[in-house]
Design a protein that fits this description.
The protein is of the alpha/beta class. The protein is built from seven helices and 15 strands. The longest helix is centred in the last third of the chain and has 11 residues. The protein is globular. The termini are close together.
Length: 255
């Protein structure tokens, strides 16, 4: 399983990265299967450096804040208005309740069908696994001001756990436990950001990964451009027994 960091900037695109989007790839039945975890603002442009958007097999949206979903409006354009004609197959898009309406509202002048001719919208349910090619993706409801999920992605005995946006919660044990790589929100800085129920800090991400047990690698992501990533890393490193990694846009990691 390969994880490509399409975008990892928290809350808005930064000077060096689009907002949240992660491409996960694995071979199955003689071809690569590709899923996207989120497609936030600015991410569609970066995605095209790694894959033709038409070759994505499914998109999973953690929640409906624009830094996690808004570039689906551009993906819609790439499927509907191609010079050679629209793509025949609808793309499965998994998201929280209201995903289809949220995207239609973001695209001025769209007709009553919204994006349903291009996207096959499917509702995420906490704990109900989704199967795409070799992948088994289990959504886990997490702690954010809106309906929000982390995703546990498994294939060939390897597990990637993506937190989405969350603060500390019991569900992180179920999401992170035994993962080969935890890709965790680290938008907040201890001593500066004290509002509860929105984001993890580096320290809280590390605490959750340690408490979950069996996690092999911890990688911090969703760090806004106004943060110093090394501060986030240092706060996590105080807790995490191994080396804390930072997500970097454009990098690919093999699990």
């Amino acid at each position: 399983m390969d994880l490509t960091i399409v975008g990892c900037s928290g809350s808005f695109p930064g000077p060096n990265s689009a907002a949240s989007s992660y491409l996960v790839t694995a071979e199955h039945e003689g071809r690569p299967f590709r899923i996207l975890l989120d497609l936030g603002s600015g991410a569609l442009g970066s995605l095209q450096r790694h894959v033709d958007p038409a070759e994505v097999d499914a998109v999973l949206i953690s929640h409906l804040h624009p830094d996690h979903c808004l570039d689906l409006t551009g993906l819609y354009v790439t499927r509907k208005y191609r010079p050679e004609g629209p793509l025949e197959q609808r793309l499965p898009v998994y998201g929280p309740q209201g995903t289809a309406d949220r995207l239609a509202a973001a695209y001025e002048g769209i007709d009553e069908a919204g994006m349903t001719r291009e996207f096959d919208f499917r509702r995420i349910v906490d704990g109900l696994s989704i199967h795409v090619g070799p992948f088994v993706i289990t959504p886990v409801l997490v702690n954010h001001p809106v309906e929000a999920y982390g995703f546990r992605v498994e294939a060939y005995g390897v597990t990637l756990a993506y937190s989405g946006d969350t603060d500390t919660c019991e569900a992180l044990g179920r999401l992170f436990g035994g993962a080969d790589l935890v890709l965790s929100d680290s938008a907040f800085v201890d001593g500066r950001d004290e509002t509860a129920g929105i984001h993890l800090s580096g320290r809280r991400a590390a605490e959750a990964a340690v408490a979950a047990g069996g996690v092999r690698r911890l990688m911090l992501t969703h760090i806004p451009a106004w943060n110093d990533p090394e501060v986030c890393r240092a706060q996590a490193q105080d807790v995490w027994p191994g080396t804390v990694e930072l997500a970097v846009a454009g990098e690919t990691h093999t699990l």
